[in-house]
């Protein structure tokens, strides 16, 4: 069985540190859901087929993982990821809430455009 790995973008690292300080419970909730998603991938389920109530499909194959399933009512949070099947890498692109959603999706588009450029140049 193939083990998927995580790769954090610089944007994610920066946003995650700040978000974790302000919203610790929300951060734990989305990371738990990310773990569930990774377990599905490691069990051999292909990225487009993984389904759960906390998964939202975004443009260009990006997935937003939210905080649903946590025991208490939490702030709406989205962890934006992209699963690159040919390399078995899940990129952690950014994290945010409803107020940053428009910018987060824009950042995801930029990331995907750069990833595709790198693939065609590399």
Describe, in plain words, how this protein is organized in 3D.
The protein is an alpha+beta fold and 122 residues long. The two termini are 27 Å apart. It contains three helices and five strands. Strands 1-5-4-3-2 form a five-stranded mixed beta sheet. It has helices spanning 10-22, 24-42, 101-121, and strands at 5-8, 55-57, 63-66, 77-84, 89-97. Helix 1 (10-22) crosses helix 2. It has a single domain, classed as YaeB-like fold (2-Layer Sandwich), CATH 3.30.2310.20. A hairpin with a 4-residue loop joins strand 4 (77-84) and strand 5.
Summarize the structure.
By secondary structure, the chain is of the alpha+beta class.
Tags for this model:
single chain; about 120 residues; alpha+beta; YaeB-like fold; five-stranded mixed beta sheet; 3 helices; globular
Radius of gyration, whole Å: 14 Å
The dominant shape is globular
Distance N to C terminus = 27 Å
Indicate the percent of residues in helices. Answer: 40-55%
Q: Which residues form runs of ≥5 with pLDDT under 50?
A: none
DSSP, total strands: 5
What is the H level of CATH, i.e. the homologous superfamily?
RelE-like
N-to-C order of helices and strands:
EHHEEEEH
What's the arrangement of strands in the largest beta sheet?
Answer: 1-5-4-3-2
Task: Label the structural class.
Answer: alpha+beta
The main β sheet shows up as: 5 strands, mixed
CATH class: Alpha Beta
Strand content: 15-25%
Q: What's the architecture, going by CATH?
A: 2-Layer Sandwich
């Amino acid at each position: 069985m193939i083990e998927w790995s995580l790769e954090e973008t610089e944007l994610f690292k920066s946003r995650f540190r700040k978000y974790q300080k302000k919203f610790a419970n929300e951060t734990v909730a989305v990371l738990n859901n990310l773990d569930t998603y990774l377990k599905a991938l490691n069990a051999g389920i292909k990225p487009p087929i993984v389904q759960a109530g906390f998964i939202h499909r975004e443009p260009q194959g990006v997935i937003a993982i939210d905080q649903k399933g946590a025991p208490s009512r939490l702030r709406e949070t989205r962890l934006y990821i992209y699963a690159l099947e040919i390399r078995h890498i899940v990129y952690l692109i950014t994290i945010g809430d409803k107020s940053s959603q428009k910018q987060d999706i824009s950042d995801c588009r930029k990331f995907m455009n750069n990833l595709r450029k790198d693939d065609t140049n590399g």
